[in-house]
Amino acid sequence: MKISMTVNGKTMSGEAEGRTLLSTFLREELGLTGTHIGCDTSQCGACTVHVDGKQVKSCTMFAAEADGAEVATIEGQANADGTLNKVQQAFQDHHGLQCGFCTPGMVMAAVSLLETNAKPSEAEIREHLQGNICRCTGYHNIVKAIMAASGQEVPAVAAE
Amino acid sequence: MPKDGIGASTKRREDIRFLTGTGRYTDDINLAKQLHVHFLRADVAHATINGIDTSAADSMPGVARIFTAKDFDGVGGLPCGWQVTDKHGQPMQEPKHPILAEGKIRHVGEIVAAVVADTVEQARDAAEAIELDLTELPAVIDMKKAVADASVKVHDDLTSNLCYDWGFVEENKAAVEDAFAKAAHVTTLELKNNRLVANPMEPRVAVGDFTAHDGMSTLYTTSQNPHVIRLLMGAFVLGIPEHKLRVVAPDVGGGFGTKIFHYAEEAFCTFAAKQLKRPVKWTSTRSEAFMSDAHGRDHVTKIELALDADNNFTAIRTETYANMGAYLSTFAPSVPTWLHGTLMAGNYRTPVIYVNVKAVFTNTVPVDAYRGAGRPEATYQLERLIDQAARELKVSPVDLRRQNFIKPDQFPYATPVAVEYDTGNYDATLDKALDLADAAGFEARAADSKSRGKLRGFGVANYIEACGIAPSNLVGQLGARAGLYESATVRVNATGGIVVMTGSHSHGQGHETTFPQVIADMIGIGADQVEIVHGDTANTPMGMGTYGSRSLAVGGSAMVRAAEKVINKAKKIAAHIMEASDSDIELKDGQFTVAGTDKSLAWGDVTLAAYVPHNYPLEDLEPGLEETAFYDPSNFTYPAGTYICEVEVDPDTGKIDVLNFTAADDFGNVVNPMIVEGQVHGGVGQGIGQAMLENCAYDEDGQLLSASYMDYAMPRAADLPMITVDHSCQTPCTHNPLGVKGCGEAGAIGSPPALVNAVLDALNRNGHDIAHIDMPLTPSRVWQAMNK
Questions:
Q1: For residue B1, what pLDDT is reported?
Q2: Which of B201, B256, B438 has the highest number of chain A CBs within 10 A, making it the mutation to test binding with A?
Q3: Can B31-137+207-254+259-284 and B299-469+635-786 be said to share one CATH topology?
Q4: To probe the interface with A, which of B9, B10, B18 has the most A CB atoms within 10 Å?
Q5: Beta-carbon neighbour count of residue B15 at 10 Å?
């Protein structure tokens, strides 16, 4: 079937079977390979995107369910002039990524958190990231990056 | 000196693509007319294959071809890269490791058939229509049973399930026995190092391609070492010469050891693409990863420590059963032997040591190197044992360690387990860690915990590891079937920019940022003038790849050597142009000057002259400015440090809270502190995962019980604390040009014993007499230990 959705502000469409997951559709049909697939049980969060403004693991819904929806992916997160947005920039500034595979999901989760909680505590950040697994960073610098992106003093997080 | 040279926390340039979704991982590669393979994997651990009926599946929609073992007649098995010699001088038992199961299934997840179809869904659908005629056999899972009872053998053509029985150092055995006979005190522990799954977040992927016009095979794969894959697969499996085989490892989403090895799926996709004349792609699911990625650890050990009446260590004796799984993965035999036995001296002056390791075949997924590989197992045994000895002797575990340390003035120090530590200062990292962890304030914090009904504990562990792997002639003597040098080509372009082609591979380590820092420092130009190329055998010199914390120590050293050659040549060119003697030319801040004069030439003027050689010493010097170096280290490097963990245990539930974690490491010199700290954070995260969450579990029939993230407990953000990291105690390596030691594995090595020691401290200081709890220290295990 033909599926259409607005992805990062642009109308895009492609073919999908009924069983096609949104994550697969984004990657294989729309060529948006920034959304990653790290597991098959909806645990790892590497495929996190926003659907109609809500943080969603794109492997938990069918592409057909997103027909007509507004979808935001990592490819649309940078500023209009191509510079990194404040969350992306904080991840670079604070070394919040290593291999980069979980990173798109982490950034999408962090953007979503800061939309609802402008100044999250360390505990709130860690709680919000429960659905996103990172194997490289021990989360230390991801937590720092999100703190920094929210304009909070980073050295206050922990001694270094 | 450039602002982004050695010592600067330069931000990572590779982050831009990863943060904007423009990275290029293997699964992002799709080739025209590509087919997809789905592997039908065994769902039993041990069985005879009587027949595979693909007749119904063959005609299913989209199916191109179904492969079984008979299609691989004449194709080699997956080679093992290390031959261990047993204590009797005999080579290990080495079974064939077929691409697809040949006649027998030996572990859950082994590939029985491969369905290649237009889409992955069609391949999966067709795989369901394959009929397997199997006779299930009893499975061998427990290592001690596998050795004691040969009635069920994993490999019928071997004499037993024992791969090797290794003694190290065999000549020391009598002296060790003697020391134990004379000991004033002996402490014994039996412990397990739990089986783990490395779990890089990117599952493995392989895309095989064959181009008829030039007869080239290309494999895109998630590898830490594309040249090693090219050599092993080309020479030993498929019989493709290296000049007809290209292996590309593009952006790779984490490795942690498990992407070192040459896997069946890589050989399959390369083979099938050539057969079918179309690209063949495989993308692992996470479930497949759990049953096909080589696992890690899985040792069962009895360790004993002999002490004299003054609490000096006099001998160590160990007996370890090490699980190999059903087949020998690429470097599996080396892990419990040369990467483990040689580290049993730890940071201490124990005069004699004997290590016995029995490597055992079982009906489980092959086990090989995972972050630390052998060194975490050695460290864990030793550091748990010392804590227990201190408890038995009623002395401080910190004081007992310090008393037995190799002292700063004793380096270089030859251990009784065949290695020579070049530098170190273990008192320094211990003092630093105790200070950072506020050891002095612990009792007050413990009292506060007690007032809240919680049990607080303080755990210390030291570690040493052997990195910078490795001197080729030495590892050759020890059974390695490979050299372990590293390579680099430094290509200077006419306008002065530099491309470094390295045999090292970055899959999260940040080489694209740190390697240019080194070049920038040497020449005095901006790091942004330097580009790193890696991961493609077509445009990099033969290299051995990235593992064992070796990239900067070995790959970085190769790059320095190549850059030195470039600079020497550039100086000769500069001398010619400025009509001076070579020996008077100095290079600083990107300017060549003639000592004692005001003559100078910019870096770019000289590089241009190299490629536009009009005013040039053509009779003495070739044009161009490009040099290659292969660096073979003369020794291992020996990073060391002290890790301290502070926990609170809830006595009602057994739940552990990690309150503080402190790492004081001696990595020698540091190029990029930000990246080094990140490596420690990640290693500690994995070590805490091993110590209290992760466990790869089989049932007695060989069913893998922990084959998804629903069942295998990966550390999540709320499981881990902020981590205090210090690397200011530096005793630079004496034998590589950068004075670096390597930082990739330390975190995973030092942290498990620190955490377990902290929990046992919490329990014992609150009235529980508990010698040991096996990892992972789940609430259930802790509670049961407290309430038995």
A1: 60
A2: B201
A3: no
A4: B18
A5: 25
Beta strands B498-502; B530-533: pairing state: parallel
3.30.365.10, 2.20.70.10, 1.20.120.50, 3.90.79.10: CATH of B299-469+635-786: 3.30.365.10
Q: Does domain A2-76 have CATH number 3.10.20.30?
A: yes
Omega prior to B169 cis, within 30 of 0: yes
Per-residue pLDDT for chain A (160 aa), expressed as one digit of tens each? 999 999 999 999 999 999 999 999 999 999 999 999 999 999 999 999 999 999 999 999 999 999 999 999 999 999 999 999 999 999 999 999 999 999 999 999 999 999 999 999 999 999 999 999 999 999 999 999 999 999 998 865 544 4
Per-residue buried b or exposed e for B97-125, using 16+ beta carbons within 10 Å of the residue's own CB: bbbbbbebbbbbbbbbbbbbbbbbbbbeb
Choose the closest CB to B21 out of A39, A73, A157. A73
Q: Tell whether B38 lies on the interface with A, counting CB pairs under 8 A.
A: no
Domain B15-21+485-631 fold is Aldehyde Oxidoreductase; domain 4 (3.30.365)
Distance CA B285, CA B780 (A): 30
Residue type at B412 in one-letter notation: P
Q: Distance between CA B472 and CA B166 in Å, rounded?
A: 22
Q: What is the pLDDT of residues B76-86, one digit of tens each?
A: 999 999 999 99
Residues in chain A closer than 8 A to B30 (CB atoms): 28
Contacts of B202 in chain A (CB under 8 A): 36, 38, 99, 101
DSSP SS3 for B58: helix
pLDDT tens per residue, range B34-64: 999 999 999 999 999 999 999 999 999 999 9
- For the domain made up of A86-149, the CATH class stated in words is mainly alpha
- pLDDT tens digit sequence for B450-499: 999 999 999 999 999 999 999 999 999 999 999 999 999 999 999 999 99
Domain ranges of chain B: 15-21+485-631, 31-137+207-254+259-284, 299-469+635-786
Residue among A88, A123, A140 minimizing CB distance to B19:
A88
The pLDDT-based confidence of B555 (bands split at 50, 70, 90) is very high
- DSSP-assigned states of every residue in B161-211: SEEEEEEETGGGHHHHHHHHHT-SEEEEEEEEE--B----SSPPEEEEEEE
What is the residue-wise DSSP string for A17-78?
A: -TT-BHHHIIIIIS--TTS----SSS-S-TTEEEETTEEEETTSSBGGGGTT-EEE-GGG-S
User: Is A123 at the interface with chain B, CB within 8 A?
Assistant: yes
> Does the structural domain B31-137+207-254+259-284 have CATH classification 3.90.1170.50?
yes
CA of A124 vs chain B CAs: smallest distance (Å): 9
Asked if B489 and B561 count as a contact pair (C-beta separation under 8 A), the reply is: no
ipTM over 0.90: yes
Residue B715 forms contact with A (CB below 8 Å): yes
Nearest-CA distance from B21 to chain A in Å? 4
Q: A84 in contact with B at a CB cutoff of 8 Å?
A: yes
Chain pair A-B, CB pairs under 8 angstroms: 193
Find tokens 């096909």 and name the residue: B292
Q: How many C-beta atoms surround the C-beta of residue B572 within 10 A?
A: 17
Indicate the helix (H) or strand (E) that contains B443.
helix B442-451
d(CA B736, CA B552) in angstroms, rounded, equals: 10
> Token pair of B758, please?
């902290």
